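Rotation project, supervised by the postdoc (A.L.). Task for the rotation student: set up a whole-complex structure prediction and record inputs and outputs verbatim in this book. Inputs entered:
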Amino acid sequence: MIDPPIVDWEDVAFDRAAAREAARACRRLARLLDRVATWHHGSTSALLDTWQGNLAVLFANEDRILVEHMAVAADDLLRCASGLDEAAEAAGEEQARRERGREDWWAWDARRHDARRVAG
Amino acid sequence: MSDHVVFDPDALAGHGDGVADAVDELRRAVRDVDGALDDAQASGHVGSWAPGWFRPTDHQDLPRRLGQLGAFTSWLAERAATLDVNADGLVQATPGWADSLRSGLLFDTRERITAGAQFGRWATGHLHTPPTEVVWGRWLLLADDPTFAAAALLAIGGVPGLVDALLAAHHRLAPGVAGPDLPGADPGRIGDAAPLPIELDRVVRLLGGTLGASTRSGDWTDRDTATLSGLLRAAPGDEDFAPGRAAAVGILAGAGQMAPPVLANLLATAVAVEQSDGGMAAWARRAAGADTAPWPRALRDRDGQVATDVTSSLLAAADTPDQALALFRVGPTVPGPLGAPGRVDATLSHLLLDHAFDEVGWDRLSAVLTTAVTANRGRGDTGLAAAGVAAQATTLAATRIRRTGALPAPLRPGMTALLDDTMHAVVPTMAGVDPADWVAQTPDPWTYRDAGVHPGGLPVQPRLAAADVEVVVERLGSDLEAIERLTRSAMATLPVFTGAAGATGDVETMATTAAPVGRAVGVILGAGHAGVVVDHRAAERHRTGLSNVGAVLGLLPVPAVSAAGVAMQQVAQHDLIVHESAVPEDYAGRSTELAERLRLGLLDHMLVEGVFRVVPDAAVRRDADGLVVGFRHGSGAFASWPVHDPAAADAMVSAQVVAHAVVTNGPPAAADD
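Outputs recorded:
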C-alpha cells in the first residue's frame, strides 16, 4: 500500500470576494484619479491662460506636483490591484491544490478500505 | 488689484467648485479602497499570496491636497475684489487671508510650523536630506505664511552659530561670491547636502518680508507684537535668545513692509534692549552692516520706504514720546568730543525728519517732538537728544520755508512752542541749572528793526564795516595742529575769523591757543548740536576750565548765521568765531554765507528776519539766593535763575549772549517798553 498523500485539510485563508472587491476599488480609484488629474490639469491650464503672477506660479507648481502624485498613486493602486489579483489567483490555486489533495486522500482512503475488505 | 496679479475670478471659482465635486468623489473612492483593502487583508494574508504586494497609502492624502488647491482658487476668487499681491507674491492687506490659512484651508498650523522648522534647518545646511518636490512645493506655497516664516526663523536662530553665518550670507552672498566658511559649504552657497536653489539673503528677505507683510494683515494683534518684543528682550542664556536674534534678522529684513505701529514698537524695544545690555539693536546693526546703522542702509535699499514707515511710526507713537524719540536715536553711536556716544545721528535724523514733513506734516511732527522734548526735559542726555531732534526739525522747517520764499516766516505756533521747549531743555542743562527754574522771559525780537535799540536798553550794535571784516572761511576738520596754526594766524591778522569745525577738541584747541594772549573764542552751534555738542561743549568747558569760550546757540541754520552775526557784534572781543554745523555737507556753505553776510553788513537785515531773540546783558550776580545768571528783560527787570555750577555760569556769561530762537506766527509785537 502506498503512503497516504499529504493533505492540508484547512482551507486557504483568503477571501477572494474581498480581494476582488478591493482590486476593483483600487482600479476604480485609479481611473478616478486619472480622470481627476486630467480634468484638473486641463482646468488649471485654462486658469493659467488668464492667471498671472507669483501665486499662479506657485499654484501651477503645486498642481504639477499633485498631478504627478496622482499618477503615481494611480499606478500604485493598479499595482496593488494586480497584486490582489495575483494573490487571489495564488490563493485559489492553493485552495484548488488542497482540494485536489483532499480528493486524492479520499481516493487513497477508499482504495485502502477496498484493500482491507479483499484481505479480510 | 495689484498689477502683479491677473486672473479671472469666475474661472477660479469654477475651478474651485469643480475641485470640490471631485474631492467628494475621490474621498468616497478612497474610503472604499481602504475599506476593501482592510477586508482583503483581514481575511487573506494578501502579502503571503502575492510576494511583493504592498498596500498603497499615498492616495489617502490626495483628496485633501486637491481640496487645498480648490480651496485656494475659491478663496482667491472670493477675495478677488480686494486682493493685493506684491511683487514677491505675498498677499498683503487681505482680510481673512491668515484666517483662511489658520482654518486649515491650506495647511494646518502643525504642518506650517513643521514645514517652517524644516525649511529653517535646511536653509542653514542642517537638513541633510534634499527636499523632495513635495516638500519644496509646500515650502513655496507656504512662503507667504507668517507661521511658517516664524518657525523657519526660529529654527534658523536656534542653531548655534548659524545666525552669524546667516547674517554674513545676507550681505556677502551674491552670484559668484563665496559664502561663509561653513563645513561643506559650496562657494556662494550654504548647505552641505545640495546647492541651495535660492540664496540665503533671499531667504531672509522672503521670511522677513512675510513677517513684515503679516503685521499689516488684519489678523495681526498686539499680542503678536508683544511676542516679538519678548523675543527681542531675551538675554544671553535665555531660551529665547537665539530665536530672538533670528527675529531681529527677520524684523530687519521685513522692516520696510511692517505696519508702522509694530515697527515703532519693535524698534523702541530694540533700542531699549541695546541701551540695557547692548543686545538686539546691535544685532540689527550687524545685519545691516558692520559699521552702519540699519536705517541708512535700509533707506538706501528701499528708496525711502523705511523712512516713510518710521515717520508714520512716529505719528503712531505720538502718545509715547520716549518711543518716538527712540526712533530718531537709532543711529550709529559715534563717539562724541568726550568719548561719550553721540545720541543723534545728524544725517539720519535729517533724512527721517525730511520725510516726516512730507508724511505727517509739520503740525503733527512738532506736536510729537514738543511732547518728546517736554517729557524728557531735564533728563540729561535724553533731554538733550530730544532737543537736538527738535532743533533739527525746526532747522528743516525753516529751510523749507526759506526755500519757498516765505520769509519773513509766518511759521506756525507749534514751532514756537517746540523751540521754546527745546531751549528750555537745552539751555538750563547747558548752564547746569534746574530746568524748573528756567523761565522764558526773552524780549521781543522785532523791536530791533523799528526801535533801533535793544529792548533791554542796549543799542543795536553798529554794523561791522565791511572793511573791518576780514573773513577767512576754513573747514577746520579734525587736524588739531592745523586748527592751532589757523588760530594763531587768525589772531595775528584778522579781526574776525570764521571756520567750520566739529572735530573732537577743536574748540578746546582754539581756546587753549587764544587764552594766553587774552583772546576769546565764540562758538556758534548749529542745529543738531543742541542736544549733543552743546552738552559736550559745556562739559568740555567745565572740564578744561577754559573761560574764554563763549557759545551761541543757533537752532536754525540761516538764523544761526544771523545769530552768529549778532553774536559777533556782541562778542567781538571773542575774536575767533567757530561755526559748528550739524550737517557736514553744509560746513562750507554755512560758513560762506556767514562770511558773506558779515562782509556785506547784513546783520540788521538778518535781525529783521526776526527769528532770534538776543539776550544780551547776560551776567552773573550773587544775590540772596546765591549765584545767579540772568539777563535784563525788556521791562528792565533782571530775569535770573540760580546757577549751581560757577563754571557753567562763567561759560554762559563769557558768551555774553544767548541767542534764543523764536519763531512767531505773525507780525512782530510792539515793544513792551
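Student's summary: Residues 16-119 of chain A form one domain.
Supervisor addendum: The longest helix of chain A spans residues 54-119.
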